[in-house]
Amino acid sequence: MAVAAQAELLIGWCIFGLLLLAILAFCWVYVRKYQSRRESEVVSTITAIFALAIALITSALLPVDIFLVSYMKNQNGTFKVWANSNVTRQIEDTVLYGYFALYSIILFCVFLWIPFVYFYYEERDEDDASKCTQVKTALKYTLGFAVVCSLLLLVGAFVPLSVPNNKNSTEWEKVKFLFEELGSSHGLAALSFSISSLTLIGMLAAITYTAYGMSALPLSLIKGTRNAAYERLENTEDIEEVEQNIQRIKSKNKDGRPLATKDRHALRQLEEKLRTLKRRDRHLEFIEKSCWTKFCGFLRPLKIVWGVFFILVALLFTISLFLSNLDKALHSAGIDSGFIIFGTNLSNPLNMLLPILQTVFPLDYILITVIIIYFIFTSMAGIRNIGIWFFWIRLYKIRRGRTRPQALLFLCMILLLIVLHTSYMIYSLAPQYVMYGSQKYLIQSNVTHKGNSTSFIPKKCDADAPGDQCTVTRTYLFLHKFWFFSAAYYFGNWAFIAVFLIGLIVSCCKGKKSVIEGEVDADDSDISDDEPST
Fold first, then answer.
1. Cα–Cα distance measured from residue 376 to residue 371, given in angstroms and rounded to the nearest whole number
2. CA 53, CA 27: separation in Å to the nearest integer?
3. 527 near 39, Cβ under 8 Å?
4. Nearest-CA neighbor of 197 among 161, 158, 149, 160?
5. Which listed site, 127, 177, 204, 417, has its alpha carbon 20 to 30 Å from 389?
6. What does the domain layout of the chain look like in residue ranges?
7. CA–CA separation, 349 vs 317, rounded Å?
8. Parallel, antiparallel, or unpaired: how do β-strands 393-396 and 456-460 relate?
9. What CA–CA distances, in Å, run from 243 to 260, 358, 405?
10. Which of 406, 405, 402, 386 has the alpha carbon at shortest distance from 394?
11. Rounded to the nearest 5 degrees, what angle is found at the Cα of 455, between the Cα atoms of 449 and 459?
12. Which residues of the chain have pLDDT under 50?
């Protein structure tokens, strides 16, 4: 029987290993696609690939977790023969240690590695900065992030989730109780609090970028881009008009008199505009003559099909999220429980689909992978359209083949946080699936048979199920250790839906994008490559 248990465990981890390799390949291609060819740095590239890969690997552990707890039980609600308490604990601990390792690496990346590399390259932009100065400055700023991480771990570790039974206990007994709480949870609360804090930031990033990208990406595929030849013709006319205006202003000082301040200011603006237009002309000429552009023209019908598919998927997610949130609003235990619901009262499409697919492994794995990749692409579309801002100041633009090392690190940090939040998004869409998978437990039937025999019928596990009959996934323990984070995620889901609808209206009202959208802009805040990206 133990052999059967090991076989079940091995299947899940083998699929996870294959997915790990696919994730690494995807991250390498993705980062290389956007990094600047002129400012490519090995350290920043490795950091970006590693950080994004760790986040995706952590998300890939979710279906493994669900698969393992589901395979402990038969469909009739009984435990499998090999699933005794020791084997069950071993499986739970294996997944738990996996989460501990991955989440610890994420904390290391977010609070130490990425800040150090980012500020190292920021300091390198100073002309007179030596290597030693770069390292010292990077360490100085990284120390601040390390302090924040330490505070989060301490708060999570020493804020008890329960209170001492004896209200008359001394101060020493209260302190002792805190340490006992920390020891009993093996640091789970501390790590959960830190990761939940990052997930909360990821929720804000998802509301900003993913929600908008879910509408911007499909509609841009459906609408397409403007014709390069017509756009270049318009640009040529603009160049001629600007050149005429420049000549008109310059003609004012033919007699040797200096130009007025107003004219000098206008002349500088026109010359800057002319440089931008000429850069646009070079890019448009390259695009117009590119074989790739002609090939994309043949793929236009396929892009429309993909656009329609993506908008349908976006609507499916939004409707599922709305129904799930509505279910929590009507039937949950309240805000002080994190809006936990006992059972499912309002079913949504994904909540019904995932448990069905979970019975045929790895179909649910494939669907979750598709969901995560979909969130990555829609988030990327949102970031490309909006850019990376600090309040009203644009910090960086994300452009294919022209993204600076600092912007690349920012990009992967944002995507890492969004992927962290994806686990809770999947829980919001299918709470029963994330908590218990396809587990069932036996309840006493109301029907009495002859001889006063008692019969039992299987019922799907939910939050009201006995703790010894249904095994909760380790993912759920990390997601719902603190009720106030769950409450924040609940309200964040409403904001996500609202931003998606607003973005959908805005995207519908906007016209076709330029064929070189975002490639050449007068207000670029980062160093721009002059060569057109291919």
1. 9
2. 6
3. yes
4. 149
5. 127
6. 1-163+172-251+262-509
7. 9
8. unpaired
9. 19, 65, 36
10. 386
11. 140
12. 1, 162-169, 171-184, 525-534
